[in-house]
Design goal:
The protein is built from 35 helices and no strands. The protein is an all-alpha fold. The radius of gyration is 33 Å and the shape is elongated.
Length: about 500
């Protein structure tokens, strides 16, 4: 065989390898092909091509593996079991930028599925190599490495700690200062994934100087970057008062409030989440938000959103109101109650209704004035019907019951209480009757109205156990009226009267 023929054979072999990896990489983009590729044993065929002498074949083989591993955890596990990871990690340190991006993509695709698969990446020594990639001159390599590290860190505190121990955090903080917008997004996302698990991990991110740089990006015009920045600040602020105060000290107010009006729904949601995480810690932090106009801004945001986007805002109002009478009144003055009442009635999802019920309970539980503000919004019958509905989720029933008790124990606005006399089950009824027993002895107008509206008659129909708290309340109410009036409205009184008429012998 001549030299020319030998070269031709090698050329054909190279072309065949190139065509094979390119075809597999292309086929792997379509879900309907995945099972066929898996059954054909494509993993084992791609593995040796990761060390091919032709760089383009190496990169395309890595890309094909990444696409397969990205599809489901079975294929990701096949990458681990096929002993492909050590090969990737070895090549990651040695090869060009195109290969590094492809290899980091495989690591990310494997690590995203479960803590076990992410641990397999850590165990094969990938973190140190990925951290080195964060210092690469190519922004695409940094981005791919940041993405892989974030996907590993998001699973649990142990994996996050492994990312921290590998020295990733200071480099990720440098990445959020780079000019490339895509890199900044992914690096901010990775910092969010590390911060979320514990105060200690969040503190590590803070110590690397992340807060100041994140805060500067709140008003960046790129919506996807804003989402990640707001998420990272939320994950830091949620853990403790100290961390929340550090976020506030970066002067995020009032600028963060503009994000509540953003055209991007998830920017709105993440901004409301950040405000919620700060508000929940202390009355002082909540007051700071009120002073900045944050409560009114969140109420407006809740009003113009739907579904899960409005959930953090709903909860934020509850957290603010829970702290004190004055803060709850700030929510009332900003017209938060009607907006929460709309959420309670309109939202189809039980967990959102439950959040609205909880927040209304936090507003109404302070004083009669607070309870009245909630009651006049016609919230009580809605809470009661949700509590009694058999199709309501257990959490919704628990939250509505608690909210009803909180509001009823302070409510002295009798017109709002009266409909509940007719519909409430015994465990709620005792709180309703209890409020009447507190108000009626001191209010002659209310006593008269209670008779004419049928309230007194309804109270007489209640079957209470002798000596029970409910019976005591009924006795207190009855003592507000002449005995003959109480008797007149008692069940069976009209029959007794008729019987007396029948038995009466007129004097002729």
């Amino acid at each position: 065989m001549s030299q020319r023929q030998v070269l031709q054979v090698f050329e054909q072999y190279q072309r065949a390898r190139t065509q094979f990896v390119q075809t597999v990489a292309e086929l792997a983009t379509r879900p309907q092909n995945i099972e066929t590729l898996q059954n054909a044993g494509v993993m084992a065929l791609l593995r040796p091509l990761l060390l091919d002498v032709v760089p383009n074949i190496q990169q395309t083989a890595a890309l094909a593996l990444g696409r397969l591993a990205n599809y489901n955890d079975d294929l990701a596990e096949a990458v681990v079991k096929g002993d492909i990871l050590p090969q990737l990690v070895y090549s990651l340190a040695e090869q060009n930028r195109f290969y590094k991006k492809a290899a980091a993509f495989v690591l990310r695709a494997v690590g995203k599925h479960s803590p076990q698969l992410a641990q397999a990446i850590v165990d094969c020594g990938a973190l140190d190599t990925l951290v080195i990639c964060l210092e690469d001159f190519d922004p695409g390599v940094k981005e791919a490495a940041s993405w892989a590290l974030g996907y590993i860190a998001r699973h649990n505190a142990e994996l996050s700690q492994a990312v921290v121990d590998a020295g990733a955090i200071p480099l990720l903080v440098l990445c959020i200062q780079e000019p490339e917008i895509a890199l900044r997004r992914i690096a901010a996302s990775a910092l969010s994934d590390v911060s979320k698990h514990s105060p200690e991990l969040a503190q590590t991110v803070v110590d690397a100087g992340a807060i100041a740089h994140l805060a500067q990006m709140i008003l960046n015009p790129d919506a996807k970057l804003k989402r990640q920045v707001l998420s990272a600040l939320s994950q830091i602020a949620k853990h403790s008062v100290d961390l929340a105060e550090m976020v506030v000290e970066a002067e995020i107010f009032p600028v963060v409030l503009t994000c509540l009006k953003d055209s991007d729904e998830y920017v709105k949601k993440n901004a409301a989440t950040l405000i919620r995480e700060i508000a929940r810690h202390t009355p002082e932090l909540s007051q700071l938000i009120v002073n900045a106009g944050g409560v009114a801004a969140v109420i407006d945001c809740v009003g113009c959103c739907k579904g899960n986007i409005r959930l953090p805002g709903i909860m934020m109002l509850g957290y603010v109101a829970a702290h004190s009478e004055n803060l709850a009144m700030a929510v009332i003055i900003s017209k938060g109650v009607p907006q929460l009442a709309v959420c309670l009635s309109e939202e189809p999802e039980d967990h959102i209704k439950a959040a609205a019920a909880w927040s209304l309970g936090q507003i109404g539980r302070h004083t009669p004035e607070h309870a009245r503000a909630v009651a006049v919004a016609n919230v009580l019958p809605v809470l009661l019907s949700l509590y009694m509905a058999s199709e309501s989720a257990e959490d919704l029933q628990v939250k509505t019951k608690k909210a009803l008790k909180n509001i009823l124990q302070k409510c002295t606005h009798l017109p709002a209480l009266e409909p509940l006399l007719h519909d409430a089950p015994p465990n709620i009824l005792k709180h309703v009757v209890g409020q009447f027993s507190k108000v009626l002895p001191h209010d002659s107008k209310a006593r008269r109205l209670f008779v004419t509206s049928g309230g007194l008659k309804k109270v007489q129909e209640i079957k209470a156990e002798a000596g029970s708290l409910l019976q005591e309340y009924i006795n207190t109410i009855n003592n507000c009226y002449p005995e003959e009036i109480v008797r007149y409205y008692s069940p069976g009184y009209s029959e007794a009267l008729l019987e007396r008429v029948e038995n009466y012998q007129p004097v002729l």
